[in-house]
Amino acid sequence: MEKKVEKLKNQIKDATKQLEEIQTSCKHENEKLKMTERHEIRWTCEDCEKITRFATPTEIIDYLS
Asked: To the nearest 10°, the Cα dihedral for 20, 40, 31, 14?
């Protein structure tokens, strides 16, 4: 079981590294407002799903309306 856990941890680490590389190389040309897992409204790239910037209070109100 210990080896299986270690293997899964390594897979997560590799996937996280791949995701970071994709997000770093992305130009973030298609953004939309989206609620994050922490229930925060942020501008997010539609292609790579990286949070790109904070929403203004006005944008948040419009998003929730």
From this structure: 10
